[in-house]
């Protein structure tokens, strides 16, 4: 199952929208919830029990946290000033206990489904080093769909309640719908309670404008996936599976192809997800913001998979770097190393934690851990070299806001992203290094080889034209042009010509049928 | 407020802190600079900034940072 299933996107969702509009307002959120749970059940069958467990755990724990807050505040009103601190501390401890329980329940499910095999394999391996003779037998079971996404979203909810950012909701249906809303359940974005819960539960009638805007977005996602991502899939897998038999140039094409494919598949999915949300009047936050226009890797990660980055920033980076120990490190290092490098020490410890967990979140494997650490080193070195680069630019009279310099920055950043994605998709870390080495040592250009990788001349041309189109759309967005708003101002003929062109281009140039290998939802597996 | 602007200028001198209102969203201050900033503010103004307060709304302009500092002082 994928959001790119045409039956789902163009039959079930409009049907749901029609029914949604016909029934009384109060029952609409219930319909969305039933549809969402049904959607989950179709994909993951009885593993839906884990979704229920997650919903129930965060619902009750959030209520308990709120109750503790209220009790504490009531007591605080009755006591003298001197005793207040002690009471606050006491209740903080209670709250910590409950929030830890919530984290433990949700994270242990995630670990059981995603990491048991990986940890088991490593523990057995370690024991074997010490002379034990154990053979590891991997468990084979499917994980509930989207568990990596909804677990983080569930944790964000109880942590937000714990921190007082959000008040616990007494309405369990609302909490359940927030956590299981069908467009987001498979691949995110990981949203916060304040982002969607209110709109999800308001049951407002669908507006014609939202419906049109939503479906434009859905179509754009289909274009990215069917015209570009699916066309590249065979080539990418061919190169990564048989890299030994290809030249460095072909490997470069495969690596670039993988990055493009990943971007088109994931951001295209987000277009469909956000578009469907829009149909129902729900503004799901953006997960991508023209990542390849970023100046450096650090900025790239504020534009690519934004919701995951924000999650790690709020719940790992700041809590670690601003913990008592973190603050001590920062203040003592600032005295020793100054303001430029001092905070980097404490910040780096927090960053390692972020990128270790980010890698692990994507999957249990050394390639993902390596990928995470690679991002960490790139961000760290960017910060270390920044003062030096600034000095050099000043000496050479280079204006860093100059368009040529900005293009140079984005190209450099993009090359670094390619290397990261190479390791991300490689089967093993040594394979990643093998491919990387070959790119530089076996530079041969043979058009016959490139046309034999899995795409013919027309395929390359179509991908190129479609990418130019996506680039142009990105450029307009970067310049804050609201494209759909502009289209809606045109008269009906122009509008329908645009829609038909979009639909026809997907139908005609979509890469399906014999000879093509559709991309499975990549992020749904993470 | 002047002292705060001084601190900010030391972190990134290329910004007019009296007018810019998207310090976070416009990436004038990234998360590592925020760490320096928080350390400086806590030392200088004798407040403690809890992590929940580290949201763009509180750090997007010098004005909102100052409002945060005043509020935290009142809380103590």
Task: Give a structural overview.
The complex is a heterodimer of chains A (526) and B (76). With 526 residues, chain A is mainly α. Among the domains of chain A are: 22-205, no CATH class; 206-288 and 443-526, no CATH class. In chain A, 75% of the residues lie in helices and 0% in strands. Chain A has 21 helices and no strands. Chain A has helices at 6-22, 28-44, 48-78, 81-114, 116-129, 147-163, 172-180, 182-185, 193-202, 208-241, 248-279, 297-300, 306-321, 324-362, 366-395, 403-425, 429-441, 447-450, 457-478, 483-489, 492-509. With 76 residues, chain B is mainly alpha-helical. Helix content of chain B is 57%, strand content 0%. Chain B is built from four helices and no strands. Chain B has helices at 2-11, 31-45, 56-59, 62-75. Chain B starts with a helix and ends with a helix. The mean pLDDT of chain B is 86. The interface between A and B is medium-sized, with 24 and 18 residues.
Sheet with most strands of chain B: none
Terminal Cα span of chain A = 15 Å
Largest interface: A-B, 24 and 18 residues
Estimate nothing, just give the exact number of structural domains of chain B. 1
> Which regions of chain A have little confidence, pLDDT < 50, spanning 5+ residues?
none
Could you spell the SSE succession of chain A in H and E letters? Answer: HHHHHHHHHHHHHHHHHHHHH
Please tell me what the overall shape of chain A is: globular
CATH architecture tag of chain B: Orthogonal Bundle
CATH topology of chain B: Non-ribosomal Peptide Synthetase Peptidyl Carrier Protein, Chain A
The total strand number of chain A stands at 0
Task: Estimate the strand proportion of chain B.
Answer: under 5%
Radius of gyration of chain B: 11 Å
The CATH homologous superfamily name of chain B equals: ACP-like
């Amino acid at each position: 199952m994928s959001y790119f299933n045409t039956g789902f996107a163009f039959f079930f969702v409009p049907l749901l929208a029609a029914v949604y509009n016909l029934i009384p307002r109060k029952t609409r959120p219930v319909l969305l919830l039933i549809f969402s749970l049904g959607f989950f059940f179709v994909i993951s069958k009885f593993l839906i029990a884990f979704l229920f467990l997650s919903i129930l755990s965060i619902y009750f724990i959030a209520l308990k946290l709120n109750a503790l807050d209220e009790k504490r505040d009531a007591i605080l009103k009755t006591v003298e000033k001197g005793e207040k601190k002690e009471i606050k501390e006491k209740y903080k401890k209670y709250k910590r206990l409950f929030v830890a329980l919530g984290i433990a329940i949700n994270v242990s499910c995630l670990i059981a489904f995603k990491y048991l095999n990986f940890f088991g394999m490593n523990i057995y391996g370690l024991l074997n080093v010490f002379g034990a003779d154990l053979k590891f037998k991997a468990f084979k079971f499917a994980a509930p769909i989207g568990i990596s996404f909804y677990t983080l979203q569930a944790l964000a909810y109880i942590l937000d309640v714990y921190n007082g950012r959000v008040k616990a909701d007494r309405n369990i249906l609302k909490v359940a719908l927030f956590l299981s809303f069908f467009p987001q359940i498979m691949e995110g974005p990981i949203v916060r309670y304040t982002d969607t819960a209110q709109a999800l539960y308001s049951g407002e009638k669908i507006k014609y404008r939202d419906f049109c805007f939503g479906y434009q977005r859905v179509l754009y996602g289909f274009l990215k996936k069917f015209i570009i991502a699916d066309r590249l899939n065979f080539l990418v897998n061919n190169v990564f599976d048989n890299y030994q038999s290809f030249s460095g140039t072909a490997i470069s094409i495969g690596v670039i192809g993988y990055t493009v494919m990943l971007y088109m598949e994931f951001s295209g999915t987000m277009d469909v997800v956000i578009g469907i949300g829009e149909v129902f009047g729900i503004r799901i936050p953006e997960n991508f913001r023209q990542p390849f226009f970023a100046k450096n890797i650090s900025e790239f990660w504020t534009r690519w998979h934004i919701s995951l980055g924000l999650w790690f920033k709020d719940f790992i980076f700041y809590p670690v770097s601003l913990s008592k120990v973190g603050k001590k490190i920062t203040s003592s290092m600032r005295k020793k190393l100054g303001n430029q490098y001092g905070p980097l020490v404490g910040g780096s410890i927090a960053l390692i934690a972020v990128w270790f967990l980010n890698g692990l979140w994507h999957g249990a494997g050394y390639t993902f851990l390596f990928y995470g650490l690679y991002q960490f080193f790139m961000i760290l070195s960017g910060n270390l070299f920044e003062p030096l680069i600034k000095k050099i630019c000043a000496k050479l009279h280079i204006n860093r806001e100059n368009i040529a310099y900005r293009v140079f920055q984005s190209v450099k950043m993009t090359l670094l992203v390619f290397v990261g994605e190479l390791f991300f998709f490689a089967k093993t870390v040594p394979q990643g290094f093998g491919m990387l080495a070959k790119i530089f040592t076996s530079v041969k250009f043979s058009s016959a080889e490139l046309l034999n990788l899995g795409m013919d001349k027309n395929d390359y041309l179509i991908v190129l034209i479609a990418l130019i189109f996506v680039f142009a759309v990105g450029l307009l967005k970067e310049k804050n042009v609201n494209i759909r708003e502009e289209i809606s101002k045109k008269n009906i003929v122009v509008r329908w010509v645009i829609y038909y062109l979009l639909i026809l281009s997907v139908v005609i140039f979509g890469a399906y049928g014999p000879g093509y290998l559709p991309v499975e939802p990549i992020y749904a597996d993470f | 407020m002047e002292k705060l602007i001084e601190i900010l200028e030391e972190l990134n001198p290329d910004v007019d802190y009296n007018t810019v209102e998207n310090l976070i969203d416009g990436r004038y201050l990234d998360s590592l600079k925020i760490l320096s900033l928080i350390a400086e503010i806590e030392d200088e103004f004798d407040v403690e900034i809890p992590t929940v307060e580290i949201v763009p709304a509180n750090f997007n302009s010098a004005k909102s940072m100052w409002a945060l500092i005043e509020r935290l002082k009142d809380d103590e």
